[in-house]
């Protein structure tokens, strides 16, 4: 028997997530973005405020922002914490050996999120802050992880059917051991990723390197990609 979901609880969570993404933000803007009734959104705001999750933004009347209370639930260890700790030395080696920004992403619903990062020391560098959302479309993370998923899950994440060209690209990625995004998300920026896959074949995340195209040249990418692949394979033991 299917369990009925709470639509009001779902809306409260959406309000909370939108505040986190757009803070400070007011009730009218929230209602417009969420396509929800303004009075209902106002009730959700009061519920979140009374519980200590949000507060009125300083110097911005009628605007809301998150309180530090969210940090209290971010600290306890969870299933990704072990992976983050074990991946840290790999990130340090990758940054040291390549000179580029190295970071770790993990699946988060219909997207991915950065849970650790070490920035390049170059003046011109790409910065991926912890907590940054990584979308599916065109990203190196998605291109590295999708080939390890069953086709129905690939289609769900992509929001469309998998074409023969995509299947060919997936096979090539599996053979090579890493994926590349060459300026398709940010012009002149290259990202390379290798999936961290458990012994059961389930993708747990991806190691990613990113930098300017002038440094991550086509000639250099096979050597960098091989480093990524080796580090990702070594992390298999971290996810069981």
Topology:
Elements: H1 7-22, E1 25-26, H2 27-34, H3 38-50, E2 54-56, E3 63-66, H4 71-74, H5 79-98, E4 101-108, E5 111-118, E6 133-134, H6 140-145, H7 151-158, H8 164-176, E7 179-182, E8 189-197, E9 203-212, H9 221-234
Antiparallel strand pairs: 1-3, 2-3, 4-5, 4-9, 5-6, 7-8, 8-9
Helix pairs in contact: 1-3, 2-3
Task: Give an overview of the whole structure.
- This is IclR family transcriptional regulator.
- This protein is of the alpha+beta class.
- It folds into 2 domains: 7-72, Winged helix-like DNA-binding domain superfamily/Winged helix DNA-binding domain (Arc Repressor Mutant, subunit A), CATH 1.10.10; 79-238, GAF domain (Beta-Lactamase), CATH 3.30.450.
- Helices cover 42% and strands 21% of the residues.
- The chain has 9 helices and 9 strands.
- The protein has helices spanning 7-22, 27-34, 38-50, 71-74, 79-98, 140-145, 151-158, 164-176, 221-234; strands at residues 25-26, 54-56, 63-66, 101-108, 111-118, 133-134, 179-182, 189-197, 203-212.
- The strands form 2 sheets. A 6-stranded antiparallel beta sheet has the order 6-5-4-9-8-7.
- α1 packs across α3 (38-50).
- The longest helix has 20 residues, at 79-98.
- It is globular and about 55 Å long.
- The two termini are 33 Å apart.
């Amino acid at each position: 028997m299917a369990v009925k979901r709470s639509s009001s609880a779902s809306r409260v969570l959406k309000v909370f997530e939108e505040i986190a993404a757009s803070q400070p933000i007011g009730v009218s803007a929230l209602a417009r973005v969420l396509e929800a009734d303004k009075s209902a959104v106002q009730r959700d705001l009061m519920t979140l405020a009374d519980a200590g999750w949000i507060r009125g933004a300083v110097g911005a009347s009628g605007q809301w922002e998150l309180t530090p209370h969210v940090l209290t639930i971010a600290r306890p260890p969870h299933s990704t914490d072990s992976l983050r700790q074990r991946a840290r030395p790999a990130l340090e080696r990758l940054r040291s050996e390549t000179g580029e920004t190295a970071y770790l992403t993990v699946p988060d619903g219909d997207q991915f999120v950065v849970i650790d990062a070490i920035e390049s020391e170059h003046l011109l560098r790409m910065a991926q802050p912890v907590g940054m959302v990584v979308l599916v479309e065109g990203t190196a993370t998605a291109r590295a992880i999708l080939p390890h998923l069953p086709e129905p899950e690939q289609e769900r994440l992509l929001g469309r059917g998998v074409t023969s060209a995509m299947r060919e690209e997936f096979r090539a990625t599996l053979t090579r051991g890493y994926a590349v995004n060459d300026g398709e998300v940010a012009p002149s920026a290259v990202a390379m990723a290798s999936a961290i896959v458990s012994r059961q074949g389930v993708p747990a995340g991806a190691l990613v390197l990113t930098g300017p195209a002038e440094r991550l040249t086509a000639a250099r990418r096979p050597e960098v990609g091989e480093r990524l692949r080796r580090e990702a394979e070594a992390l298999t033991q971290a996810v069981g």
